[in-house]
Amino acid sequence: MVLSGPSGAGKDTLAQEMIKHFGGIVEKVVTYTTRPKRPGEKNHHDYHFVSVKDFKAMVKSSFFLEWARVHGHLYGSPWKSLDKPLQEGKAVLLVLDIQGGLVVKEKYPQAVLVFILPSQWEILQERMRKRRLNKKEGALRFRNAHQEVQALPKYDYLVVNDDLTQATQDLIGILRAEYCKTFRRVNRLPLPILK
Questions:
Q1: Which residue, 9, 3, 2, is CA-closest to 142?
Q2: Phi, psi of 77 (to 5 degrees)
Q3: Contact 173, 22 (CB under 8 A)
Q4: Neighbour count for residue 9 (Cβ, 10 Å)
Q5: What is the pTM of this model?
Q6: Could you tell me if 31 and 95 are in contact, meaning their C-beta atoms sit under 8 angstroms apart?
Q7: DSSP string, the chain
Q8: Chain-centroid distance, C-alpha 120
C-alpha cells in the first residue's frame, strides 16, 4: 500500500496509526533522503538521512525501487525493504510522493495507491505553517500540492484526512478489503473450494 499526497496531508501520521492498529502485520518502509533532519526526527526510524554523494552512488548501484527529486531533495525506497516482509505475507506500507507511487504501481501492479488529502486548501496551508518551514520552502510545497492533486485519477482510493480517527478507519477498511480480494488469497490459504 502506497500513501501519497501533498505535504501536510497527514501521510506519516496515518502510517503510524496503521502500524499501531495492525501491529506486526503491516511494515513501513523507511526511505532514504538527502534533506536535513528536522527537530525530533530519528535517523533510521523516520528516514535514512544520507549525503547527496551517497544517494547518487545508491542510484548507480540500483539500490532503489524508486527515487525522485521532491521539493529540492532526493528521496528513494530501497528494494530490500520490500522483499522480506512480502515473503512473510505482511502488508508493506510506503509513504511516497506521487512520482514514487506511480513507479511502484508500474513495477508492482498489485500495489494499492491511496491518495491522502484534507477537504480544503486552507487546512493544508495551516498544517504546512505548523511545520515551521521557511517561507520559500512552504511556498514551494504549496505550489507543488496544486500539481500533485492532478494525479488523483491515477490512484485507487482517496482518503480525506480532516478527522484522524475517520481517516484511519477508512485506511483500515481499504487494507482489509484489499486483503480479501481473491487474487491475493488464493495462493495463501488452502480453500476447500479449490480442492
A1: 9
A2: -110, 125
A3: no
A4: 24
A5: 0.83
A6: yes
A7: -EEE-STTS-HHHHHHHHHHHHGGGEEEPPPEE-SPPPTT--BTTTBEE--HHHHHHHHHTT-EEEEEEETTEEEEEETHHHHHHHHTTPEEEEE--HHHHHHHHHH-TT--EEEEE-SSHHHHHHHHHHTT--HHHHHHHHHHHHHHGGGGGGSSEEEE-SSHHHHHHHHHHHHHHHHTSHHHHTTTS--GGG-
A8: 21
Grid coordinates of 17: 496509526
Cα separation of 18 and 116, whole Å? Answer: 14
Give the cell for residue 64.
532503489
Q: Which pLDDT tens digit goes with each residue over 91-146?
A: 899 999 998 999 999 999 989 999 999 888 787 777 777 766 667 776 777 777 78
Burial of 80 per CB tally in 10 Å (0-12, 13-18, 19+): exposed
Give the integer Cα–Cα distance in Å for 129 and 138: 7
Residue type, 112: V
Q: First vs last Cα of the chain: how many Å apart? A: 31
Residue 21 neighbours by CB distance under 10 Å: 14
Query: Is there a contact between 186 and 194 (Cβ–Cβ < 8 Å)?
Result: yes
Return d(Cα 195, Cα 192) in angstroms, integer. Answer: 5
